[in-house]
Structure formats: structure tokens, C-alpha cells
Design goal:
The chain is of the alpha+beta class. 31% of the residues lie in helices and 22% in strands. It has three domains: 140 residues, no CATH class; 95 residues, Phosphorylase Kinase, domain 1 (2-Layer Sandwich); 94 residues, Transferase(Phosphotransferase) domain 1 (Transferase(Phosphotransferase), domain 1, Orthogonal Bundle). Helix 1 packs antiparallel against helix 3. The radius of gyration is 24 Å and the shape is elongated. The structure holds adenosine-5'-triphosphate and magnesium ion. The site of magnesium ion has 3 residues, from loops. This is Protein kinase domain-containing protein.
Amino acid sequence: MATPRDAPRLTRIRYVGDGLVMSAIFTFDFNGGCFVTVLASPTDEAGGEALVPADYQFDESIEGKILTELTDLTWGTVEEVMTKKKEIKRLEQQLGELVADVCRPTMHRLMHTPIPEAQTLEDYLYPQTYMLQVVTDSAGDNLACRTLDGPGHAGVPELHPPISDERLRGMGLDLEATDIPVVKPPQIILNRRLQGFVWKVTIDGEEMICKVSIDAFEYAIGDELAAYLKIRSARVKLRVPELKGIVQSHRGVIGILLGYIPHKHHNLRALLAETSTAVSSETTTELRYKWAAQIRGTLEELHSLGILWRDIKTDNVLIDENGDAVVLDFGGGNTMGWVDPDKYGTMEGDEQGLLKIMKALEVGI
Ligand SMILES: Nc1ncnc2c1ncn2[C@@H]1O[C@H](COP(=O)(O)OP(=O)(O)OP(=O)(O)O)[C@@H](O)[C@H]1O
Ligand SMILES: [Mg+2]
């Protein structure tokens, strides 16, 4: 259940522009609102100049010094920036706290009511959004917060991109004609966040899993939907969750709904890592051989439908409440240590991952 938060939570920092010093945009969650807060550099070539007064002395300003320090740190080759990663993170964190402190009274004034307990996917993904700017006050010795009109500097980031119409057509999905329920974010009540953008949700009283797109892995949700649609149209019963619905926001298709698989352990990796004697009866040799056969069989069936698992690992296997293995997560992603990068996304890669799962299950091959 979502709990009201009394402190702004920094969710993201972006740098914009291409000038000498970049602007930085801090995004905060507060009381269910989203606050996109800019520290503007007039040299950022992305609109920073429009945000500062004509006689503005950037170099003398507090934000000027902060942005110059940040830009200096984040400037350089990828290797150079990597070596400074810790320092950058520390500075960003510190700045996030400073910016949050400056903006807290404004955030409180604009969003003074804590989020309701039954938060919907709509509340979470598309909160009321305000644009703020943090700028040195006219006396020149303190930072102040001011509200900006409209979406402002470089706009609000699109964090949950929709699957393109072209891709949906490629999957043979016609939203007008499909018999798969198409569900809107306000109908989806969030119960618990399981991981990243995966929640346990309730829709019309039924518990399900909801997964939505994220900009950093733009293609993942489309890949996953395509896999589930193939399984569904093959009308075969596989040891995978059932596709229960498609999530359509005002932007388009951004997520999928899956049948909830009741389970005790977060995934097979977590179960195998348990050393307590309490679970030894849950991982007997007999059970492990059964799971090995179920996983191998499921992978063969997926392959026969032309679906690759790709992100094959014990994290993506659930043991359900009947003690049977269920295969999850067709969104791609390659986790270090499972499939060699040059084999990823091939049959050979899936075979390599399967061998590692068998090894983790200690079943011999
Ligand atoms: N159908 C389901 N029923 C019950 N639990 C599920 C179901 N699908 C996923 N989960 C739980 O959510 C976790 C994450 O799901 P999944 O692996 O599909 O997402 P992910 O893409 O790995 O997320 P991230 O991208 O954040 O790593 C699983 O390990 C499992 O604990
Ligand atoms: Mg996963």
C-alpha cells in the first residue's frame, strides 16, 4: 500500500543543452505531485537564457557555481566520466537535497494533500506536474524557488513511451477489434511495487501483475507483448503467466497485465539462496529435477513458437504455490554472467542460459 511521504523524493536528474555549462533538471515526487525543477544555465542552448533576467550574473550566482562544478565533472570521455561516477553521484545527491529544501515550501503549497491510499497507475505515472526554477535571490546570497508557467524548459520527460502503432500492427494487434481487455491507468489500483515498473495491482477486484514501459528500455514492453500475443494465438498452455490485458494510457499502449501467480519466494534465485533448514523441504532433489524439466520443456515450446527467452536466469523463474516452475519476463535485457553478449538474443544464448539454470538447480545435465 502506498504510504504518504512528507519529504520530496528525487527521482531523476537530467542535463540539458550543449553549451559551455548545461542546465540541470531535478524531478521530485511530493504528495503525489511531480515537480520538475530547473537550475538554468543561460549558455545551455536549450532555452536556459529565457529563464534568467537580462542583468543576470550567472558566474556570480549560487546555481552558476553549482552547475559549473557539475558540468565540469560530467564533461569528458565516457571512461573519464566513469572514473568520476561516485563523485558525481555524491554531488548530485547533495544538490538534490539542497534543491528539495529550497522548493519544499512551494511544493507543500501546491500539493498539500498527501496521496490517497488507493493510488492508481494514472496517479503514479501521470501525476499533477509543476515546473519550478531554483535561482539566486535578488540580494544575491540565497537560493529561491519560483514557479514557471507551462511545461517550460525542455518540457517534461516522457518516461513511459508507448509502443508505436507500426509495431502494434506488426504484432497483428488491432486495439479496436481485439478480445484482450484494454485497460486504462485510472482503472488500475496499485497494491505493491514488486520491482522497477512491475506492480501487483487490482482491477475490478482481481489481482494481476502490471508491467509498464520505461524510456531507458524503450523496446522491452513491446517485445514482451509480442511474445505473449504469440503464445496466446498459438492457443497452447505454457508454464508462463496468462496475458490478461493491455494497458493503454492517453499516449498509447504502455504496458501489459498478467495473471498473478501466487508464490512464496520472490523468484527461484531467492529460493535457492535460502539456506535455512525451513526451506530445505521446498528445494528437494525431486523438486529441483521437476523444475529443471518444466523449465527446459517451456523453453522448447517457446522456441517452437519462435520466441526467445533472452533474459534467461533464475531471477526470471517463479515457483508457484503448488511447487511448479513458471517462466517469466520476455522483455529482453541481458544480465551479466548468464548469456555471453555475442550469444544474447540467439538460440545458442538461450541454451547457454538454460545450462546455467540447470547448474543452479544442481541437477546435472
Ligand atoms: N505473473 C506474476 N505473478 C507473480 N509475480 C510476478 C509475476 N510476474 C512478475 N512477478 C514478480 O515480479 C518480479 C519482476 O518481474 P519481471 O522479471 O517480469 O520484471 P523485470 O522486467 O525483471 O523488472 P525489471 O525490469 O525492473 O528488472 C519477478 O521476479 C516476480 O517476483
Ligand atoms: Mg526479471
